[in-house]
Records
---
Amino acid sequence: MLLHTIKEVRDQVKEWKKQGLTVGLVPTMGALHNGHLSLIKKAVEKCDKVVVSVFVNPIQFCPGEDLDKYPRTLEADEKLCNDTGVSIVFAPTPNEMYGNTPQRSNDFLTYVVPPFFYVNKLCGKSRVGHFDGVCTVVNKLFNIVQPDYAFFGQKDAQQLVIIKKMVKDLNIPVEIVPCPIVREASGLALSSRNKYLSEDDKIQALALNKILNNIKDCYKQGITDVKALKETAYNFLNEHHELEYLEFCDADNLEDVTTANDNTRVFIACRVGGVRLIDNILLGE
Ligand code: PAF
């Protein structure tokens, strides 16, 4: 069932709750791919009813980012959801979510602002305000759907840590279910933004996964010094890559790590053909 208004979703969820059914939420920005599909399948397995939100959230895009050209494929998204056993596809307009408030301005909109420590690193450094926009919309979706479970991909590992922190700090009654990264056979992590990559870019993009796997291999061979591990990355980079960051952080609290351990997550962001790609790996997995 495709719904566009908050009221329709609330009314339907209220009925389910009356019947004692569990509700799962998979928040997405649409352009669904197999990565999303894995979250949706997990949700359908675990919950009686599943809501997938499809909303390209304007307030999480920074000025100059791809808000206008972000892929929008609602018809195909709805079909994939229907075929997978989703009960509601919630696709609100920006106006339904934010009214007429001037967006990207906390002069007029109440924001959920995650702690500086968690956002002033990795993607948050170049995408200033991005995680405010993410936490605000996810919090709104939690309030609208009131899910028992919400499903997020490990591909956006910083986002996942920040959302878990928000849920804990604000006592939001939802269980966050992390789901593993889904990759193409080549190793490329699935992302809606892969649509922007040419065939050549896709080959160059494999460097991200190769760097992470190589670091993990070196770690398994006993190298734990982060400086030494970082240096191994340069073997895989060439003029097609614009490395934004390669960082080693504690997987739970994002603290910087100088000596790697099993709970260290390695995060990478790199531009290929002008497209910003991210990936990560947990060393102990
Ligand atoms: O990960 C995403 O696709 C988005 O950041 C989310 C969680 C749907 C919020 O807009």
Note: The pocket of pantoate is lined by residues 27-29, 57, 60, 134, 137-138, 156, 159 (CB under 6 Å).
---
Amino acid sequence: MSEHEQGLRLFGKTIPLYLQILAALVLAVGLGVLLGAGNPSPQNAELAKDLAIPCSLVLKALRALATPLILLAVLHSFLTTDIPGRSGRRLALILLGNTTVAILIGLFVANVLRPGTWEKISFAGDAQGMTKQFDPWGLVESSVPEAVLKPLTDNNVIQLIVVALSFGIVLRALKSEQVAAGRSDYRPIEQFITIMFEAVIRILTWVIMLVPIAVFGIVASTVTLKGFAPFKALAAFIIAVLLALFLQGCYYLLRVRLGSWVKPRLFLAGASDALTTAFSTASSTATMPITFRGLIDKVGLRESSASLGALVGSNFNNDGTALYEAMSALFIAQILGLNLNLEQQLIVVLTSIFASVGAAGIPEAGLVTMTLVFTAVGLPTQYIALLITVDWFLDRCRTCINVMGDMTVSCLLDGKEPKLAMEPALEEAFVSEVD
Ligand code: ASP
């Protein structure tokens, strides 16, 4: 079990988190059926409401951790990763392009399949008039916070990223100037940010350990009060997300084929270890060394492109997360009977881009930053509780796409010319060997 996978020790054996969640799901369904499955007595209905309390506590903790996590993740990335000037701009453009495509694919699939409407659920009416209207100038105007620390308390993702990027860029520049002058005054602040980042991640780990209890409570409560309809909608959501992630994977292969010398087959052969690790750890950061080695040893990229794509990418590049956050917002809006118009979906695009930049490459980070996307479009965050039940699985799938995205960026940075021009026959042999 990797250090990123939390486990519970029982009878001398460690039970991984996903098994705990699965067990919680099964037990909760049993309890929900016992309590009435959609038709509870008044007493059981009261009890069901109490059962939802652990989940709302977990959500509150996730909301509270979201802003420090994003701020520290961005500052930490700027301070600790080396991006050479010219490649930096190219990298930023590639990252932005890929993330935008991911979100558009997510929104397209969610709009076409409309998974939130597959099953009629009586949540509608809970949230009438809750979403915000799109106001482009208001958005620009409000992107600058009234006070530097205000976005931290307001949970405003756009303002937060503006603050984080400003400080990140400045700290990076100061560090470079000091390094060039042989000074090291920047070290204490770098150490402070690193240790605070690790501290937030550790607290997040504690919260994640409570997820099985939260899942048990919310599933038992939902089955008791609403029966199984919400889970049919969730099944539709899973299908839609998997389809969108698959399309994003195809987009990467096409992008690699057209924008680099790497053939899709070679790319997939080089990605096999990284993808299995990504799926089993649900962490693109934990997968990073394997991604890097795959790019160097199996694909045969130059070290500079492999490190820039894999190391920087795994900090900033989370296309799977962006796609998922946008789809989740649309799905919950559909469940609530709210129609997000094109302009509101544009806010979803913008905030999902920002939220994915700030999402750390650790398990469930997307769930944390999602609270900020929901807040930005005015969707009630308590409905994220529904998604917690399936997030353990979808997290693994979107992490694979995050890693595939990092590999794509590396290939594109490597350009159209291979490191050493391989004879086609030699390349064939190479591919079958890594296969
Ligand atoms: N687990 C994902 C990753 O490590 C982040 C997320 O939760 O979306 O890339």
Note: The pocket of aspartic acid is lined by residues 282-284, 318, 321, 359, 361-366, 395, 398-399, 402 (CB under 6 Å).
